[in-house]
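Anyone up for a design puzzle?
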């Protein structure tokens, strides 16, 4: 009666694990990018809601970036976690105070770096992000 594994059996196990890894890793990366995209879409919805609340109070939208989100819109919706998001850079462009477009740009270092998700004051979503 023998104990242990032969070298051939160990090589076959290593090959099978390698094949499974080549299939699973890209799927995992795509899933994490989709999740990060969902996080940005949610954040843009919160930013849009805060902009609308601000407009109801001051009759104008406001332009802001990650650095000014908390100061400009933080009294309407909690913006600390959005402003500190390491995966996305957020910016709002107010046009004449009567319209706005919020943009999330994928931060450098990600697989989709530089791609965007946009949301307008009318609720139209667009951009170039394709996870």
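Challenge accepted. My sequence:
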């Amino acid at each position: 009666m023998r104990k242990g594994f032969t070298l051939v059996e160990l090589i076959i196990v290593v090959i099978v694990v390698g094949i499974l890894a080549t299939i699973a890793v890209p799927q995992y990366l795509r899933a994490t990018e989709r999740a990060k995209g969902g996080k940005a879409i949610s954040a843009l919805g919160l930013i849009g809601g805060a902009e609308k609340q601000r407009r109801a109070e001051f009759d104008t939208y406001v332009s802001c970036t990650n650095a000014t989100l908390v100061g400009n819109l933080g009294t309407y919706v909690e913006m600390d976690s959005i402003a500190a998001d390491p995966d996305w850079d957020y910016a709002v462009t107010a046009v004449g105070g009567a319209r706005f477009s919020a943009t999330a740009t994928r931060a450098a270092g990600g697989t989709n770096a530089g791609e965007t998700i946009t949301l307008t004051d009318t609720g139209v979503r667009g951009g170039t992000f394709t996870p």
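A detail worth pointing out: Residues 61 and 95 are 8 Å apart (CA to CA).
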